[in-house]
Amino acid sequence: LVWNMQRWMRRFVPSRAHMTNQYLSGNYAPVFQEMSTSNLRVEGQVPSSLVGGQFVRNGPNPKHPPRGSYHWFDGDGMLHGTYFQSDDNVCYTNRYVRTVRFLEEKEARGAIFYKLGDIMEPEGMITVLIWNMLQRLPFVRTLKGRGTANTLSTVGQYNFHGQFNDAFTAHPKVCPITGELIFFRYSFQEKPSCKYFVADQGKLTHELDIELDTPVMMHDFAITEHYSIVMDLPLTFRVERLLSGEPLIQFERDRCARFGIFPRHAASSPVWFVTDPMYIFHTANAWEEEDGKRIVLIACRSEAVFLFSNKGMNQHQDDDESLGLRERNARGEFVASPYLYRFVFDLETEVCSQEPLDVHPGEFPKINPHKLGLPSRYIYLSVFAEDFVDPKSAIGFTSVKKYDLLTGETSSIPFGHAASTITHGGECVFVPRTPTENEEQRLSEDDGYLITYTHTNGAATSQLKVWNAKTMDPEPVCVVHLPQRVPFGFH
Question: Comparing C-alpha atoms, which of 132, 168, 129 is closest to residue 149?
Fold first, then answer.
């Protein structure tokens, strides 16, 4: 009954499944076969530090053709995992994350829940209004049935022993000192717009309501040893925009950005630092200096962000100037491109300063996880291809770059070597090297490995590559040949 009503509701939203969408083609296109394979072909030697571990990456992989517009942030979640069972047996598994939504759409044999792409169009107002009405009916399941995966087999939603049944950030933080899990949720439909949580030993130990003037997309945050940093950035949700044919989510270039800093277990509102408009999808790290008087934040900053077009998201955009994708600022940066920046917050004067760390855009910053919230020297950034600002080309990374924040030196590794082909990679995860019995337990911060999936344009399969993060030798330590393509994804 429920999904019949949802399918009926879908009749109000015209289908655009026939239209071209760059996020459903090339290496963005979904794969539909779930498989488990072993004894994959490996070039090189699997490091002993990786044996017994599994590299898992998630990404959008729509099971059914979209009914309305489709955005890359939509799609059913799929996990791609490479398990290093031994130094001579590497296995690959991929599985859909079987959330309540996924299972109900499987039963309905089609897309029935509205997604981000749907509500970006003017008729999305109809979708939002009907959904709000349906959720008030006693026999309609709400959207609380979000799923999660502990391994590649979905085990269900974790609710912190019955304490939690809400949205969950894509970027929770685990304190390397206390083991606490720190996270938040944001919403454009519920109050407060942002809620912050701390959990320990699997149970919630602290929560804080953070009131915002306008609901915003808050994708990431940061922690230090004693503080947390949330970001009220002007990528806003405004339902009223749909009435005038504008997107629900839009960057407001005349609205300031705010950084809220507060003690990890604070009982009151943050101290807000106001800066010029900007957006940050991902932070690299943050730490305290001068006995906690200053906080340093390293993050990927863009002056603006253009996620959606008033023309719709399914067509390739010929007029990329209208999206601002090629607009530059006074420093020569593309305003819609993320660049690595250092922010310094003075807790005594409540003044924020910022400076760029590189002239080349990149994203998905990673560090040694043992240094999270603590002073760190090295950051690894996936660097964009030179033509990534062109919406008609693949938005991929072509290399990984290492930053030494102490000396200012950088070094890079290309994801592919062949001049005749283009190879893209994803987020490079840092895995600390395990010391041998004859070594001191304290290794250098950059002593470890970088791991990511790569794909060469036009290829039917992908590879997993491992590099030495300390030497940044372009030659991979090992390459695992996967049995199928791993689409571009997230983390």
Answer: 168
Q: Which residues of 401-430 are buried (b: 16+ CB within 10 A; e: fewer)?
A: bbbebeeeebeebebbeeeeebbbbbbbbb
Contact between 294 and 250 (Cβ < 8 Å): no
Which run of H or of E encompasses 291? none
Q: Which of 247-251, 385-389, 400-404 has the largest mean confidence?
A: 400-404
Write the DSSP assignment of 166-185 as a string of letters: S---S--EE-TTT--EEEEE
Left, alpha or beta for 364 (phi > 0: left; psi -120 to 50: alpha)?
A: left
- How far apart (Å, rounded) are the C-alpha atoms in residues 244 and 10? 21
Which residue is associated with the tokens 């900053």? 301
Nearest to 249 by CA among 195, 316, 186: 186
Question: Could you tell me the CA-to-CA distances from 261 to 174, 257, 347, 365 in Å, in that order?
Answer: 18, 13, 9, 21
Q: How far is CA 176 from CA 9, 297, 373, 423, in A?
A: 47, 17, 8, 34
Instruction: Report how far residue 391's alpha carbon sits from residue 41's, in angstroms, rounded to the nearest whole number.
Output: 35
Strand residues in 24-67 grouped as ranges (E): 36-37, 42-44, 54-60
Neighbouring residues of 439: CB distance < 8 A, sequence distance ≥ 6 = none
Q: Which residues pair with 481 in a beta bridge?
A: 463
> Among 453, 462, 467, 454, which Cα is nearest to 481's?
462
Which of the residue ranges 154-168, 282-296, 339-353 would you say has the lowest mean pLDDT? Answer: 154-168
pLDDT digits (tens, 9 = 90+) for 390-449: 444 445 799 999 999 999 999 999 999 776 688 999 999 999 999 887 776 678 999 999
Token reading at 416? 């592919």
Predicted model pTM? 0.89
